Amino acid sequence: MTQANARAVTQAKAPRNNRLRPARGLASGLLSVGTLLGAFSPVQAQTIPEGARIVSLGGSVTETVFALGAGHRVVAVDQSSLYPAEARALPQVGYFRTLSAEGVLSLKPDVVLASEGSGPPPVLEQLEAAGVRIVWVTDGSTPEAALEKIEVVAESLGLDAEGEALRRRVETELERASHLRSRVEDWPSALFVWGRGGGGGGVRVAGSGTGAATMLERAGAQNAAAAMNGYQPISAEALVLAAPEVIVTPQSTLDALGGADGLFALPGMSATPAGQNRRMVVVDLLAFIGFGPRVGAALNGFMADLHPLLSSPRE
Amino acid sequence: MSEAAGSGELRAEGLSFRIGSSELLRDVSIDVRPGRVTAVLGPNGAGKSTLLRLLSGDMHPSAGRVTLDERPLHEWKPQTLALRRAVMPQSSTLTFPFTALQVAALGRIPYTTGLGTARDHAVALGALARAGADHLSHRLYPTLSGGERQRVDYARALAQVWSAEVPGARYLLLDEPTSSLDLARQHELLDSVRSFAQEGVGVFIVLHDLNLAAEYADEVTVLREGAVVCCGPPRAALTASLVERAFSLRVLVTSHPRSGRPIIVPDPTRDGASTPDPGLPATPSLM
Amino acid sequence: MSSAAQSLPRRAPGAASLAAERAPLVVLGVMLLGTVVVCLCVGAVPVAPGQVAAVLASAIGVELPWAFGEREALVILQIRAPRILLGVLVGGGLAVSGALMQGLFRNPLADPGLVGASSGAALAALTLLVIGGPLVALLPGPLAGAALSLAAFGGGTLAVIIVYRFATNGGRTSVTTMLLSGIAMNALAAAGVGMLVFISNDAQLRDFTFWSLGSLGGVTWSRLGAGALLLCLGLALAPLLGRSLNALLLGEVEARHLGIPVQRTKAMVIFLSTLTAGAAIALTGIIGFVGLVAPHLIRLAIGPDHRVLLPASILLGGTLLLSADLVARTVASPAEMPIGIVTAFIGAPFFLWLLSRDPAGRAQL
Fold first, then answer.
1. N or C: which end of chain C has fewer CB within 10 A?
2. Is C224 touching A (CB cutoff 8 A)?
3. What are the angstrom distances between the C-alpha of C46 and each of B263, C49, C68?
4. Does residue B68 belong to the interface with chain C, where contact is any CB pair within 8 Å?
5. Looking at CA atoms only, how far is residue A152 from chain C in angstroms?
6. pLDDT tens by residue, C50-81
7. Using CB atoms, which residue from C256, C303, C307 is nearest to B78?
């Protein structure tokens, strides 16, 4: 479903991004600021010049920028930009869907690399009006979306060579995963478990339509929770019914549950094949479902753990 | 304005009021005349407060009608009616921290649109003074004692019909205004009621105390089980037999040594033969 | 000339005391104006006060000697100014709707949320966020942008209308029944919210969480639009109810004796309170505490006379919300804190402190 979206990745998604619009409504009539704003010169550049100040919104977009070697140009990131570590040291503009126009402007950015869904929309309009270029980057829960992100970000940064190299690397990794998967005869039934511990509905599993489900499928595993939609809490009985052979979980969840013992002590878990064999695979959450440049590596790493008997000829 | 004041009256004719199968009031007629104090008496549950609520237009009678200046009460616009008559409830539910002065000034609401005028303010002060509550004016109403509140409520009613600002007589409907007052305050308040009536205001007052009614009312109506037992000037209406019929209590009726108005006391010999109390004047009109 | 008229106190001390009644409004007006000036001058982007003055002056065609750039002009005129106007309107709206409800219910703790305005708005907003996507896609551009606002306004008013209908029988509204139906409505809406939270994804849930904490961010002149007009209408009309609400505080019967059209007043109070609260929630999400605190502070300071209380609450509500927003947009700069967090974090302890030193014992009443 995201294929179509991914195709549409383009800066034209923000149709007005290169032109300042005169202030609308109340203000234009009342304060005649339209003429005032008309004095701005439109931003013409297609690529972002070397000295430009970048605000990067969205974990995978930030990862992409850093992977392209342009991390030094980033002056601020959003709350979800947790990788790489350098990004965490930068000023934060908050949650990418509740940005503050003045807060972002105070960083004097030239460009905002905005993940799809960045907002609220009027704030981005205000930023555009202030002469900040907005580059929209489509988000998607597929490895292909990661490739699109690399293309868009590299092109906007004028890093065509770096972009091409990074893209090829990820593509190769994905191809290898795909090739590996073709040799998997018996797809194990896997369950992605995510969330906090502490009883109640603290733990949720990845149903259909989730990024984690996509990754399971790409890795050659059946999603034991395919009957569910989205990330949902699961009852003990449904867990027994789902009968996963392997539990896939991020390290943070494992820590919250108190390690493997906590995980396999979840109600119903002992009645599943995974619980009986204490079989689990730990993944890096951001790499696994962030769909950034690390997706290929994450997929291969995951497959190596998931299908330990499958020796890779090219490894 | 005095001509207008003399013309009309607040009149109830053949009022009945029924809730479900129980009849709270049965064929009651009463006239409240300008310049007169009309008291209604009766045991608990006799229908006194029901009568007041019908007279004030809070409730509609099941039968009969209430008129003001010969026009049915429900045809009057509430705003116009508010300029003519004030009602003092038995108790107030006001819990917000208004000062006593502000509460009295609430009586001026029918006359104001924006913030109060200097005259409203002066009237509120005057009303507090006449209610014997001027020393309370800056106290917060919810912190007042029951008796103090009663005087402030009374002041609010006074402020509402303070002076004749529209044609027609003014009316004051008071529901047991002295129930929480001590002896001196009771008389002080009823003195004030009477002097107010003498200015041409028609007063309808629900009272518990027969002697207070006898002392201050021009007319009394005694109710029992929703029906009128007797009515008329206190001397005529408050006879021992009628009081006994209304209250199921044997009483002695004597007269005030100064005013000559009736004084009603329980008959200590009500269970046995009648032996006049030595302390009472010699001519009790027993039964 | 009746003797009653003669018995008035000689020279009424009325005039002086009337001036005293109006003085708080002047003081509060000056406070609001001062807050507006501070809010215009302070923000993440540094703009000197002189530049602010120059920008404002240039907007009306007057030149002042302070130089400023386009970015300063944009920040002042397109970001701070609409946001300040929004803050004044929403703060005033929340405060006055709280004051109206407190008067109607004769309870200083009441607010429009009691009869379902907030929970109805929340349910509608979350419905839109979680399952309304396809519907929004069908709407034309401007409507789609305002879809969340429209949903919140519609949900809030619908909830109150339902509660009102349940409590109104034979042309009379029972305030007690209204309170009870409000409780039921809130429970129902909470169940609906829970249901939607259950089926929502993380992004939707996060959006909803932020919405339910409120924000004045992202406002532009054009987005003020209809919501601001509704708020202006409510703010202009609400103070006219002061006299009637004063009478209602005595009780409905007493108010009728004072010539107040009680049923019409109740309907107007509910209508205006819902209108202002609904429009405020629609514009900014749910911002707690202002509707409770502003009227309360006014009552503590100058008493419960609604003729003063209502306009004073508007002025104080605007001041409080602007101040809270100033904190919200500067404390975590360049990010922005949801304003509901600020109003509660600053408002609640301040309120407690105030109650503890309440000299007149007014707050306990």
1. N
2. yes
3. 87, 10, 11
4. no
5. 23
6. 999 999 999 998 889 999 988 899 999 999 99
7. C256
Beta bridge partners of B11: B31, B67
Would you say B100 and B152 are in contact if contact means Cβ atoms under 8 Å apart? yes
Radius of gyration of chain B (CA): 20
What is the pTM for the complete model shown?
0.84
CATH of residue C157: 1.10.3470.10
Chain A contact for C172 (CB, 8 A cutoff): no
Read off the pLDDT of residues B105-127 as tens digits, 9 standing for 90 and up: 999 999 987 677 888 999 999 99
Q: Which of A52, A49, A50, A109 has the alpha carbon at shortest distance from A76?
A: A109
Chain C CB within 8 Å of residue A212 CB: no
Give the total number of structural domains in chain C. 1
Q: Which of A31, A229, A231 sits opposite C202 (nearest CB)?
A: A231
Q: How many Å lie between the alpha carbon of A100 and the closest alpha carbon of chain C?
A: 6
Amino acid present at A212: A
What is the Cα–Cα distance from C90 to B44, expressed in whole angstroms?
Answer: 53
Question: Would you say residue C20 lies in a domain?
Answer: no
Distance CA A229, CA A241 (A): 16
Residue B231 phi/psi, 5-degree rounding, is -150, 160
Query: Is pLDDT of C206 > 90?
Result: no
Q: What is the CATH number of the domain that holds A170?
A: 3.40.50.1980
Find residues 170-189 of chain B whose CB sits inside 8 Å of chain C.
none
A129 and A10 in a common domain: yes
- By the 8 A CB rule, do A69 and A159 touch? yes
- Asked whether the CA dihedral A231, A236, A238, A243 is positive or negative, the reply is positive
CB contact under 8 A, C218 and A122: yes
The contacts of residue C37 (CB under 8 Å, 6+ apart) are none
Using CB atoms, list chains with 3+ pairs below 8 Å to chain B.
C
Instruction: Using an 8 Å CB-CB cutoff, list chain C residues near A37.
Output: 70, 73-74, 78
In a mutational test of the C interface, the residue from B96, B128, B144 whose CB has the highest number of chain C CBs within 10 Å is B96
Which among A179, A201, A236 is the end of a domain?
Answer: A179
Residues in chain C: 365
Q: B16 near B25, Cβ under 8 Å? A: yes
Whole-complex ipTM: 0.88
C7–B130: do the CB atoms touch at under 8 Å? yes
